[in-house]
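Render this sequence as a predicted structure.
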Amino acid sequence: MSGLAVAVCAVSLPVAAQECTIKLGVAGPMTGGGASWGLSEKAATEFEAAWTNARGGLPVGNRKCKVSVVSVDTQSTVAGGAAAANYLASQGVHAVVGPVISPEITGFRPVAKRNGVVSFTPSFASDVLNPEFPLVFHEIQSPVVWAPAAVKAARDRFKLKTAVVIGPNDQGGTDPGKALAKTYNEAGVKTTTEWYQRGTANFAPIVVRLMGMNVDAVELGGMPPGEGAILVKQMREAGYNGAFGRMGAGGDVVIANAGGIGKQKAFYWFDHIPTDSPGIKKLDADFEATMKRPLPEMALWYNEQIAAEMLLKAISAAGTDQDGEKIAAALRTMTPESRYVGKAGWRGKAQYGINQELSFPVAVNFVVSGKREPQQKIDISQEPGK
């Protein structure tokens, strides 16, 4: 398909399980500044397929089926999201992990709805869930849910009084960026916003403006991790001595690409799951043993593994991978549960009008003078009803 990068991964398994094959899709950015989002999502889904296949396959009716993964690079654009939905549907894929970026989900949803494709997305789009698109599920929570507690923790740790939120000047940056700026201001941290063109490789003009603001913290908001790392390095080179915040997935990637923990004077970031928990350590070990390769770069892969696990359970319960409506119906009847993290619940009714968001706990991390401090866990409430 022109302009779209596609990969198919089929993991070997016993002959008895090769009578049938079910497909899981992955849609996310796999090139450009946001590539670590999509590649981590792809790795998580391929792991879940391999883990399932190593145990004989997925029970579907009276058979055990091989799980294969079809991955598409959505390129962080509306057009890329729409093209991915069309392609996946044409390949008989009706259950998808992704897309990731808000513009992608904007393009993906209407096409997926027409083709009966159910999806689990981590997007921060302000309308990521909507009763108009009942086949979309949210694998994490948006900043409005967890940011008040996370921002207050950062404010108190670093004595923040002023901040600036920076992000791309498209929906993927402005939706989470505006929400974060509002939360910082409500926490008593005077905060403004600064937008730039997605794909920027040299932030020198922006660095000059940011240095002139003399703020206590630069919040990287919805920046792609690769671009966030460039900004951090250029700000440090310019002599910035304040804190960097990453209230969204990818703080670990930004730090790694900006010289590592030892190079950071003050950095705080958010994880969509408590990554220091024993269950997550077990997931790390299982990934390395199963996949024979290093862990994915971004911690968001833990949530994407949960999404893939739940989609496979729903396919098994529905008895088919070819009917998104049945798969979605099966998801709604399930209590969200991870074999690594345990049980959670559904939420989202108050914010979106539909209870299709997972309520697994989250965490905040701090680096001070080149050393990481203990992680702080934040519990997320569930909501009754659908």
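Summary. The first helix runs from residue 35 to 53. The CA atoms of residues 317 and 330 lie 6 Å apart.
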